[in-house]
Amino acid sequence: MSNPNHRPDLPRCGAHTRAGGTCANPPMTGATRCRMHGGASPRSKAKAKERIQDAEARHAVEIFAARRDIEPGAALLELVQWTAGEVDYCRQQARALDEDDLTWGRGSRKVVTTAAPQWRRNRTSPT
Questions:
Q1: Cβ partners under 8 Å of residue 17, min gap 6
Q2: For residues 10 and 26, what is the distance between their CA atoms, to the nearest angstrom?
Q3: Would you list the domain boundaries of the chain?
Q4: Euclidean distance between CA atoms 114 and 108, whole angstroms
Q5: Which pLDDT tens digit goes with each residue over 97-109?
Q6: Kind and range of the H or E element at 53?
Q7: pTM for this model (two decimals)
Q8: CA-to-CA dists, residue 58 to 45, 54, 62, angstroms
Q9: Can you say whether residue 4 is alpha, beta or left, with left for phi > 0 and alpha for psi between -120 and 50 degrees?
Q10: CA dist., res. 15 & res. 21, Å (int)
């Protein structure tokens, strides 16, 4: 009887077992070995974290920095539409603010300094 959860397309630990075969457990996330064969060690966890961050960075580059061949007019239109979306978002955020929290023009608070700066106190007067 075969295991219905067995998926040969998933990566496996592959470490050598005592019986001489290879381990069929799945590796820990980002690691190359299962927890029984060193995947839970601090060094393995640090390297796994590094692998995951590297994969996320590569994915972000593929999505956001991919060069596209686009006609200049279409590129400008896309930029205008994108900017219009940002403006709409900012307007929605501004509408959500309470009017009392908004400041228009110059503030009515007066800033009072209590002491002169150090460089002023040490100057000698020309007499």
A1: 23
A2: 8
A3: 10-70
A4: 19
A5: 877 776 666 656 6
A6: helix 42-64
A7: 0.44
A8: 20, 6, 6
A9: alpha
A10: 8
